[in-house]
Structures are given as C-alpha cells and as structure tokens.
Design brief:
12% helix, 204 residues, alpha+beta, eight-stranded antiparallel β-barrel
Length: 204
C-alpha cells in the first residue's frame, strides 16, 4: 500500500500538508506494571550508551545499546478518533496504536486494483473514511471500525525509522518507531503481533 499523500518526486516537502491542529498520536495510559518494564530512560546519554557500537536515532537515548543501526522505511500515518494507524513498507504491515497503550500489527493485504473505499460509507462533516490499505483493514477487521471511529484527517506519507533494543535486566526487548510528527514510540511485544507501547521521545 503506497500512501496517497507521499511526497512526489521533485516536490518540496513544504507542499505536503501537516496534520490538523491537535492530531497527535494518543498518549497511552498503561498500568504501573507495564510502565515499570517498558518506560525508556529520559536522561542524557549514559556511559553505557557512549560505548554502543551504534547510536540510537533519537534523543534522549535509552541507557542501553541498540541491536543494530536504525532501519528506514517508507511509511504513512492517519489519526483516528480512537487511535492512530501507521503503515510500514519495511514490514508490509499496518500497526494500530490505541490510546490505552495497546498496539496491534496487521498484514497489509490491499493491492492495486482493489476498491480504494466504500462509497456507501459517508463520514460526518470534519471526518474521513480511510482508504486503500487503511480503509480495507478498518472496514473488514471485526470490531476495529467501532474502536477507532472515523479518521480525523487524510493519511500522510513520510520516512519512518525502526530500531531494536535488546532486553536488559530491567526491560524487555523494545522496538522504537518514528512517527510522522517526530514522536518516537517504544513497542514491546506481549503476544503474536500485539503488545504495549509508550512514548519514548518527542522530537517535534
């Protein structure tokens, strides 16, 4: 699924619309147990970080070393009334982030030639029906449409980054994901293709 609002070749980045005011990724509310095991450090880089073979792509860096360098990925993001969808070309997947601190990953099954939307679904004023891969997932996944609600804006293309952090004595393994607006989410896998997330950094 290539995002519909990705920057065209030769088009300046300023031509791509910014998200509407207030359309930031939801801040999670997580249990104390979850927060204690996955909240990244917000201190300045430590001596441990300074000895890492690879730096993290964001600041403040965690007090642990990444598994390897950050992996760039074409991406698209769309905010909803009850969460955020992020498409990652590198994974050929869509990750849905919920405001209660959950995330779930789905395979992107939309292909060129399939309907982009459902013309029988008409959003209220100021809201949008998601299209293409986001729309197919939203329409066809039981319960997802009801939980996410309407889209608050159109999907926007950007270049994301992914980076893994190995588990430590204090934390499980984490995946760091760069979002459209410069926030970095820390994802921990709790079950197959789903888990918990918190905000690791805000570089807006």
């Amino acid at each position: 699924m290539l995002p519909t609002a990705i920057i065209a070749e030769g088009e300046p980045a300023s031509a791509v619309p910014a998200p509407a005011t207030g359309l930031v990724a939801p801040a999670p509310t997580v249990t104390t147990a979850v927060a204690e095991t996955m909240t990244p450090s917000t201190t300045t880089p430590s001596a441990v970080t300074a000895r890492c073979d690879q730096p993290f792509f964001f600041e403040p860096a965690p007090d642990a070393c990444p598994v390897g360098p950050p992996i760039p990925s074409a991406a698209a993001e769309q905010p909803f009334e009850g969460g955020v969808m992020v498409w990652l070309e590198e994974r050929d997947a869509i990750i849905v982030f919920f405001p209660d601190g959950r995330w779930q990953q789905f395979e992107d099954t939309w292909t060129e030639g399939e309907p982009e939307n459902d013309p029988t679904i008409v959003p209220p004023d100021g809201r949008f029906q998601p299209i293409r891969g986001f729309g197919k997932l939203w329409r066809e996944t039981p319960g997802l449409r009801e939980e996410l609600g309407w889209a608050l804006g159109v999907e926007l293309g950007f270049e994301s980054m992914l980076q893994e952090q190995a588990p430590t004595d204090d934390q499980p393994a984490l995946t760091y994901l760069l979002t459209y607006n410069g926030q970095v989410f820390a994802l921990v896998l709790r079950d197959l293709d789903q888990g918990d997330w918190v905000m690791a950094a805000d570089n807006r």
